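Dear colleagues,

As part of the handover before I leave the project, I'm documenting each prediction I ran so the next person doesn't have to rerun anything. This entry is a single chain, and its sequence is reproduced below.
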Amino acid sequence: MRLCCCPARHRFQQTLKLGRLKAAWDSAVAMRSAEAWSQLGVAALELLDVEMAMAGEAPGVRDAHLSSRRLGTGGATRPGACTLAAYRMLGDASMVMSLDRIRQYEDKNLLAAHVLILLDRDHSQAQVRVLRTSCAT
């Protein structure tokens, strides 16, 4: 593992690995880096954390350990609050619009399926997730 010379970047990477999105948000604000916002957005999506109150506000996310909430491993059925803000900070309008459409989903399998598609990950797993949903769409 390569350590960064920039303390904010190192702190950012460590908080992402721990799933502490609020702390990662604070580091991304300090770094003012598009790469940091992109990494934060992907990490938050992997945690199924797709809501955000408004861009620019400090997200009210609770720190959660990555391993308990990664895609497909359980965790909360209702997403928290960080991904939309990260993609808004990036200026990625298409991702913001897509996330805005799916953020109300309460079914974890349906949400995970959409996230897998948005991240261009395992499409067959996404299809399995859709089939496991509790509601017909």
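The two ends are 44 Å apart (CA to CA). Confidence is low (pLDDT under 50) at residues 52-80.

All the best with the project,
I.
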